[in-house]
Amino acid sequence: MSFAADTDFRIPLGSWADAFIDFITDTFGFFFDFVRAIFSGAYDLVDLALAAPPFWVIILVAGVLGLMIRGWRFAGGTVVGLVVIVGVDQWENAMDSLALVLVASILAILFSVPLGILSAKSGLASGIIRPILDFMQTMPAFVYLIPALILFRVGVVPGIVATIIFAMAPGVRLTELGIRNVDHEVVEAGQAFGASPWRILRQIQLPLAIFLDRITAALGTGNTPIGRFRAAHTHPGAPLQPEPAAPSTTDQIEHEAARRPGVLVGS
User: Fold this and answer.
1) What is the DSSP letter of 201?
2) 3-state class of 88 per DSSP?
3) Which of 133, 176, 228, 257 fits a disulfide with 120 by CB distance 3.0 to 4.6 angstroms?
4) 193 and 175 in one domain?
């Protein structure tokens, strides 16, 4: 016999959870219905734009976009992949999934960029948001479907909400990291010329943050602690070199612009 059975002691967690869910759904049901209507409307519009034209039109547009963005290899792979989807008769399901991903991605960016800016500007906000982001990235994406199904009912909206929650963490972290890595001298130069905080954010910090993120993606992770750790374990006899001093934003821009012109934003 267990202690709980002997003493009739039991914590009514199930009853508390039911009461809390009933309170949330009864009190804020109008809000969840409003969010459901907006997300469903956005999904229906995007899905209609993808499913209404003939499949060859979408394939042609995707191929042209791939050619403009990455080159002929990426465009060819895109076209071949979409043709295979048509060949296995999954075009409608693929467009439904693509519409859901596009809507969730756009909404995740709209939510994560302001939070990243807030985290970069305020240490208090960063200290509050960072543990929440750690928790969000720790849990699998399917875990968020359970409360989303309870609040938004069965449909595409719970999938959109779960995708947004799971995709927000990288957006917030990259935005905060990019803004914090902008050289303070560049920001001070803008302040010296009388630029407002909004103008500094819009014309200095955000463009340079995007530029630095693209440089990081282009250069890879070889000069990061993770990259050096991987190199040390790949070549155990090689010593682990100390981390060099990080170059300033101006040095990075000049070096990368001379070596990789295509990395420049807007090029």
Assistant:
1) I
2) coil
3) 176
4) no
